[in-house]
Amino acid sequence: MPWYFAESGSPVGPVEDQEFDAYVANGRVKPDMLVWRRGMAQWQPYASVNGASAVGLAERPAAAPGILRWCSECHKPYPLSDLAAFGAFLVCPNCKPLFTQKLREGVPAAGTPPYAGFWIRCLALFMDSLILSLIALFYTGPVLAMFPLHGDPSRVLGLQLILIGIGFVVGTAYETWFVGRFGATPGKLICKLRVVRSDGGKLGYLRAVARYLAKTLDWFTFGIGFLMAAFDEDKRTLHDRICDTRVMRYVPDALQTSGGCPECHEAMPAETWNLHYPARCPSCRAILTAFAFPAQVEEQRAAFPEPAVEGGEATCFFHARNKAFVPCDQCGRFLCTLCHVGIAGQNWCPSCIELQRRYGRLAWLDKRRVMYDNLALLLALGPIVLLPFWPLAIITAPATIVVVFFFWRKLTSLVPRTKARFIVAGVLAGLELVALVLILMSAIANWGRLQ
After folding, report:
1. What does the alpha-carbon distance between residue 261 and residue 265 come to, in Å, rounded to a whole number?
2. Which of 76, 279, 351, 434 could pair with 272 as two cysteines, CB 3.0-4.6 Å apart?
3. Residue 362: partners with Cβ closer than 8 Å, 6 or more residues away
4. Is 150 helix (H, G, I), strand (E, B) or coil?
5. How far apart are the C-alpha atoms of 340 and 322, rounded to whole Å?
6. How many Cβ atoms sit within 10 Å of the Cβ of residue 294?
7. Is 0.85 surpassed by the pTM of this model?
8. What is the pLDDT of residues 328-344, one digit of tens each?
9. Residue 357 pairs with which residues in a beta bridge?
10. Angle subtended at Cα 263 by Cα 259 and Cα 269, rounded to the nearest 5 degrees
11. How far apart are CA 266 and CA 209, in angstroms?
12. What are the tens digits of pLDDT across the range 263-311?
């Protein structure tokens, strides 16, 4: 039997039992709100209907999960007609002001996976290489003692193969044990990274072995397998793709929302936000200043959509049961109060916002840019870091010059910074070209002497 309830002086309904239960669970229907259904003599506060109380109201179970969806911000159940879809995120009316402001400020939405970036993974790899180099000192001496060269150059190759084989076994055991046991190598633990499966589960020892063996393919591709992490949306390298793994950053829960203390990671109470003087964290007593979004501080009135009553009344394009409020200034679709987002004096729908955000066409939704100065520096450092593959400078040095020349005036980072990376990359590329020319001239001169 359908329900009716009074909201802002206007009746809302009819609403079926399951949908009404959802309104009760998420707080839209309050204990003192007037409700009515067939069989009742008059409108009554919900708390007095069928002996319901404020306590019973809070404890009332939500509707069946198959009927409801959950807000990606507050994780409360709502009927699908009361959720605005911003891409893969469903947002309730209570969270929409804060969610849209997060979009404008470039803050990741709740539930966005914190994938580890390319440079932090390079740092972790460098630390693991240092640790393995220290371990190599303990077995290199005994191996040299067991297989002395005795001035025979022909034994050098065999000794190198033995050391490479031992290093491969040690590296396999090192990565398998730490990744399988702790989810990360010591280098990754220092950088607060962890390796997980695509579903967030822990890696077993077998998958850890396979992942290390797949790493060898990254080297056989001249490092391109590693560079894939710089351009992949999920920051995956070649071996991550093969083994279906991800490398994640450790982000404390308190830091994923506004108001988290950077020292102890405990949530800061609302009374310490946006003060004109520093405040102390109640947990660790650290002195800091906390700033919160206006949409989080100000009391917001939830824009629950108004249902369409008359048959010929215009309805929302995304929610056919809701009354149209305004048309989108971009696509012309009719929007209800839930779907409407006002930005810079214009009316936007969630679909247009997501489309423009995905392709980076709006400055106020620009959360990522191609940092051409980093790309130039990466190309210039490639032959130096991957020293055995120094002939790659024949390709990377001219490519660096091209990137510096054509993208010098392009926007680099969202945070303003100097052209230092472009300058360093250009100087390194120039030195590499000079070195290549000298090597070529020396080779031609030696060839002439041999002739």
Report:
1. 5
2. 279
3. 356
4. coil
5. 12
6. 12
7. no
8. 888 888 888 888 888 76
9. none
10. 30
11. 37
12. 666 666 777 777 777 778 777 777 777 766 555 555 555 556 677 666 6
